[in-house]
């Protein structure tokens, strides 16, 4: 394996997984700020499902996508709700773990695990 193929934060391929997770998380979290946009949640998993179906789908890539999905889902809520620090930390941790579990479920359904 060449040095350019290794996983790094500067690798263009690794940013695809992060961007897919961020897009899904933002689409999921949109109705918390603007409830009229709740029908968009029906398409929120499309970026993650697309990434699951890619040929180079790996466990660590999907877990990274789930991590970024949880962050992108939770951070706008934290900013808008202005919760105390402890509750903010619990919400951030809980929702990030739940989104990672959701992506693990997609991996199991797709047969990648």
Write the H/E string, N to C. Answer: HHHH
Question: Please, what is the average pLDDT?
Answer: 82
Q: How can the largest sheet be summarized?
A: none
Total of DSSP H or I helical runs spanning 4+ residues = 4
Strand content: under 5%
Q: For the terminal residues, how far apart are their CA atoms?
A: 23 Å
Number of distinct beta strands? 0
Quickly count the domains: 1
Rg calc: 15 Å
Broad structural category: mainly alpha
Helical amount among residues, as a percent range? 55-70%
Poorly predicted segments? none
Morphology: globular
Characterise the protein shown here.
- The protein has about 110 residues and is mainly alpha-helical.
- The chain is built from 4 helices and no strands.
- The chain is about 70% helix and about 0% strand.
- The chain is globular.
- It has one domain.
- It has helices at about 10-35, 45-50, 60-80, 85-110.
- α1 (about 10-35) packs antiparallel against α2 (about 45-50) and α1 (about 10-35) runs parallel beside α3.
């Amino acid at each position: 394996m060449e040095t350019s193929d290794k996983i790094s934060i500067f690798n263009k391929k690794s940013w695809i997984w992060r961007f897919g997770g961020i897009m899904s998380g933002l689409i999921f979290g949109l109705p918390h700020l603007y409830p009229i946009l709740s029908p968009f949640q029906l398409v929120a998993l499309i970026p993650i499902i697309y990434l699951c179906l890619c040929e180079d789908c790996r466990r660590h890539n999907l877990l990274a996508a789930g991590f970024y999905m949880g962050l992108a889902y939770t951070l706008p809520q934290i900013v808008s709700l202005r919760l105390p620090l402890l509750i903010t930390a619990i919400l951030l941790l809980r929702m990030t773990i739940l989104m990672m579990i959701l992506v693990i479920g997609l991996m199991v359904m797709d047969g990648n695990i």
